[in-house]
TrEMBL record:
Keywords associated with the record: Acetylation, Hydrolase, Protein phosphatase
Naturally occurring in which organism (per UniProt): Taeniopygia guttata (Zebra finch)
Stated name of the protein: Dual specificity protein phosphatase 19
Keyword Hydrolase found: yes
Encoding gene (name): DUSP19
Compositional bias of kind Gly residues: 53-63
Domain named Tyrosine specific protein phosphatases: residues: 201-253
Domain Tyrosine-protein phosphatase: 133-274
Role played: Has a dual specificity toward Ser/Thr and Tyr-containing proteins.
Pfam families, per database record: DSPc
Length: 283
């Protein structure tokens, strides 16, 4: 299994990898053996080895053994070949979900995009069915996924006139049939979703004033779009986060903003409370 790390891809410089200096290696081995002798009696002149103190081989026996060990290690160092090293491969996942495989070849770093593997028979079963469930938060305010936004029959069934698309990289399907507003938002906990609220709320209010019906959607209709609709209810109707979230959850049970958005919505409630002095816990 490859090591996996979550980092954005930036420019990388090909660097030598796995280089080994024979001269420095030999010096290091000599130092280690010297250090092991000093450990028997550091700082004491003429300290005898444990073998000498016990009446064993003493100085005459230890010397040849150490010399033989050093000779053997020196031979290993001289015969070292970089080709014998195991190749190191690392998987890097970017913020957009792309997977890059990094492999050292000689002194250069090579990068190639990993192809998606087919899911094995066991484990999770991928649900490929379209999610056409549309949450009716208000008669004129709907919440759904891109599947619903791309299904003309569903759109007409709910009398949609305006579409607020807050997904990233999802195209608008029926430009001649509906009024669209696209605001690309990344579904990441660190994304400041409240910074997009003014532009989103303006479009929703515009649809309401024009007696339209607006569908707010992202990719799955779970996190980004849900957070926008919750924030809109909190702002326009001065609802508490708990009350706004309850209304959205009842309309679309799948709604569940990511932890970062949830934290921001709680702070958004504090801002509303500070600006207005009170919040509404009722419809």
């Amino acid at each position: 299994m490859l090591p996996d790390k979550q980092v954005p891809i930036r420019g990388r410089q090909a660097l030598p990898h796995g280089l080994f200096s024979k001269e420095k290696g030999a010096a290091r081995v000599a130092f280690l053996f010297k250090d092991s002798f000093n450990a028997a009696g550091p700082g004491r002149k003429g300290a005898a080895s444990p073998a000498a103190r016990g009446g064993g081989a003493g100085r005459g026996g230890a010397g040849p053994a150490v010399a033989g060990a050093m000779h053997s290690l020196a031979q290993e160092i001289r015969s070292f070949s970089r080709a014998n090293l195991r190749k190191q491969r690392t998987r890097v996942t970017t913020l957009t979900g792309r997977r890059i495989i990094e492999t050292w070849r000689g002194a250069c770093l090579h990068m190639e995009e990993e192809e998606e593997e087919a899911a094995p028979g066991g484990g999770f079963v991928q649900d490929l069915s379209a999610d056409l469930q549309v949450g009716v938060v208000k008669p004129w305010l709907l919440l759904g996924s891109q599947d619903a936004a791309h299904d003309l029959e569903t759109m007409r069934k709910h009398k949609v006139t305006h579409v607020l698309n807050v997904a990233y990289g999802v195209e608008n399907a029926f430009l001649n049939d509906f009024i669209y507003k696209t605001i690309s938002i990344l579904d990441l906990p660190e994304t400041d979703i409240t910074s997009y609220f003014p532009e989103c709320f303006e479009f929703i209010e515009k649809a309401k004033i024009q007696d339209g019906v607006v569908l707010v959607h992202c990719n799955a209709g779970v996190s980004r779009a849900a957070a926008v609709v919750i924030g809109f209810l909190m702002n326009s109707e001065r609802l508490s986060f708990a009350r706004a979230f309850s209304l959205v959850k009842n309309a679309r049970p799948a709604a569940c903003p990511n932890p970062g958005f949830m934290e921001q919505l709680h702070k958004y409630q504090e801002q509303i409370l500070k600006a207005n002095g009170s919040i509404n816990n009722h419809d």
